[in-house]
Amino acid sequence: MKKVYFLSLVVLLMNGCVSSSIFSPRANLSEETLSLNKVNIPHEQHTHNATFLGFKPIEPMYIPYFEDSVKNSKIFFDTLENKELLKLLPLQSAVMTLENTTSNNKLSYLMATVTGDVGNYILVMDYMKYRTEPMYDDTDGEFLGNGKVGVGLRIKAKIKTYKANLNLGSLLALGVESKNGNIQGEISIDIIGIDSKDVTNLVPLTSQIDESSIQMALQSLATIKSKLYEPDIKLTPHLIAINPIRIEQEEKFIKDFRVKRFHR
Questions:
Q1: Measuring CA to CA, which residue among 227, 224, 113 is closest to residue 161?
Q2: What is the pTM of this model?
């Protein structure tokens, strides 16, 4: 099946003060925190003249270590203090992906946030702090693509539309369309690799899409994001998005990543 990939900054979330703070990578960060991101930490993003499809979100996979190509060694995340670990995750992004669930239960990735026909869609909004890691085929050394390894916040909305050509460019737009009776669905929250007692208490439950549940989700995530640099937070990086050089290599990419990175 042909897939088209979409990846863009979540600029439409800037419409509200709460929503803009969540997906702004610099929001709620101290000067010390911002300075960490300026440190020149080695991390790899290989291209090898390949034609990339763009990063797409996946179900998070626990990653225990990364390979330091400079020292030719493995560095295990659970041996590091949070401050050291955060230095190894120098990149930040706020991105959105819109997926169309087709009649045969497969996904196609749309080029824009405006829906086409009436149908089922999944809207994924990510704020991630991460590093890129390359993946190669063990058998022949072929470069398969890059993965995003890190921690972050993910909002996922499963939507059924009752009107064509709807603008689903932000959570606020979802609330408006729901109020107008153009969509129905549910919204869920994933906190990826960020854990503490306070964070657990802040995670909202999955709920139906409406303006109040969206506002509650945004407020909870803004608070959780502000706690990222607190000393009692436990950070466990995961593989959160992949960028295979060819569509048909996607399953192989994930399988090889799991085999190589899951065990010490």
A1: 113
A2: 0.73
